[in-house]
Write a structure and sequence with these properties.
Blueprint: H1 18-42, H2 47-55, H3 59-62, H4 64-67, H5 77-98, H6 104-133, H7 136-172, H8 175-200, H9 215-230, H10 235-244, H11 247-252, H12 256-261, H13 273-302, H14 304-316, H15 320-328, H16 333-362, H17 367-396, H18 409-430, H19 440-453
Helix pairs in contact: 1-2, 1-6, 1-7, 1-8, 2-17, 5-6, 5-8, 7-8, 7-13, 10-17, 10-18, 13-14, 13-16, 13-19, 14-16, 14-18, 15-16, 15-18, 16-17, 16-19, 17-18
């Protein structure tokens, strides 16, 4: 195995590995956190169990800052990256083989948890390799490339693969076999990517274990970073903002796909799996990206503080479209696409303020480590509400709040999401932001970072 990781030819264009690297970084994330939702619902798992158990799959991204420093102690970032791609391929293959079995739910959940852990570790190693392999100038030059191909992974993961699964469900006549084929295909793809990167990801002299660093020194530095993070000014309002600004989305995210595919008799829109891939994974993702770009451009002009409230309203108020869809249950696919497009564009626009705030709050001592803590709290804020979203739907299904006799679980749930918007408004009232932060003339990089991150 030693020859696998030996020095390769230097001077290769980053175009040979950056696109594939960041597609490989995005696909497992969407497989774990998006495909599982629709797959389990289509295979008959109740929304309460689905939301609760798939919610735990966020955990590796929540705790990622706790083990990321230890990757510097062993071998190289290149080795870690390629090794994780092989392990992701293995876990995807296991999912594919286990789905047709009678104990598919518990067995595949274990595989998905390992896949999530491998994916989070891959994120750490791949981003570290990117920074070591490229000069600061090239890092800036290729940041748009890596962001673009991560977004392409989003369209593939939430759109293309779902459309493929829907087509296979119809042609094969079996939901488990269809999704098994999807994950076996993904496994082959990741195996090919790992083999490709063994050939085309160059080795660099900088990519080696950090000298003079031990597990003891890492723990000491981590403790210092932890303490300095929680000693930052206005830490309470900052944590509340990180955990609650996205509460409406955190509630929605586990129930949107079940709502789209649920029969009309159960309060859903009765879309096919392929239609969900179009409306949620293609139309929705494109709208999300356009909203993020618009948000970054807006903040660059007037700063984060100026746009905070318009973006908070943009993030929250379009959620009412899901209330309208749940009450009207339209059969016109175009109307459904338009509603999702507006909601996702508003979310993308409003999400920009959140990502830029994480950059803002992380400034100062230990900026990189503090930003990692911020993203961990961001993941925690998505994880916990999503786990209980399905249970809330089942509770709300027992009440007929709008006087109708039909099922009202989704209607009541989406109105509950609208009520959760008050939490977003409350944290916006308390958060402290320098009015000059984010303006192009003062510090243009933050706005650019927000666009690329969104």
């Amino acid at each position: 195995m030693k020859e696998i990781y030996q020095e390769t030819n230097c001077g290769r264009s980053p175009w040979l590995w950056i696109p594939t690297l960041y597609i490989a970084e995005g696909l497992p994330y969407f497989a774990v956190n998006t495909l599982t939702v629709l797959m389990y619902v289509n295979m008959g798992v109740g929304v309460a169990d689905m939301a609760f158990y798939t919610g735990w799959l966020y955990l590796p991204w929540v705790i990622k800052p706790f083990w990321s420093p230890f990757i510097d102690l062993f071998k190289t970032k290149r080795l870690w990256t390629i090794a994780m791609q092989f392990l992701i391929a293995l876990s995807m293959a296991l999912v594919g083989f286990l789905l047709p079995g009678s104990f598919f739910f518990s067995a595949t959940l274990v595989c998905f948890w390992f896949m999530a852990f491998f994916s989070a570790t891959h994120d750490i190693a791949a981003d570290g390799y990117y920074m070591l392999e490229l000069s600061e100038h090239d890092q800036a030059a290729y940041v748009g490339v890596r962001s673009t191909f991560y977004r392409i992974a989003s369209v593939i993961g939430q759109g293309g693969l779902v459309i493929l699964a829907g087509h296979l469900e119809q042609t094969m006549g079996s939901v488990p076999k269809a999704w098994s084929t999807v994950f076996l295909t993904l496994s082959v793809f990741f195996l090919a990517v790992a083999l490709y990167h063994m050939r085309f990801m160059p080795s660099t002299a900088k990519d080696r274990p950090v000298e003079g660093v031990t597990a003891r020194s890492i723990l000491k530095d981590f403790a210092m970073t932890f303490v300095t993070f929680f000693r930052k000014p206005y830490i309470a309002s900052a944590l509340a903002f990180m955990l609650l600004y996205r509460l409406p989305e955190a509630m929605c995210i586990k129930l949107i796909q079940p709502f789209l595919v649920a029969p009309l008799s159960e309060g859903g829109l009765a879309l096919t799996t392929s239609q969900v891939g179009v409306v949620n994974g293609t139309v929705g993702v494109i709208a999300l990206l356009l909203g993020g770009i618009a948000g970054g451009l807006a903040i660059a002009r007037n700063g984060l503080k100026y746009w905070l409230w318009p973006m908070a309203l943009s993030l929250t108020l379009p959620c009412v479209f899901y209330c309208i869809l749940a009450m009207a249950q339209p059969s016109n696919f175009l109307w459904i696409c338009m509603a999702v497009f507006i909601e996702q564009f508003g979310y993308g626009f409003g999400f920009t303020a959140f990502m830029l705030y994480l950059i803002y709050f992380s400034r100062g001592e230990c900026q990189t480590s503090h930003y990692a803590f911020c993203t961990a709290f961001m993941a925690l804020g998505m994880m916990i509400p999503g786990m209980f979203a399905g249970w809330l739907h089942d509770v709300f299904a027992q009440y007929h709040l709008f006087g109708a006799d039909g099922p009202q679980g989704f209607i009541n749930f989406f109105w509950w999401v609208m009520l959760c918007c008050l939490a977003t408004f409350a944290v916006c009232l308390k958060v402290r932001i320098d009015p000059s932060f984010g303006r192009k003339q003062d510090n243009g990089n933050e706005a650019d970072d927000a666009v690329s991150t969104s």
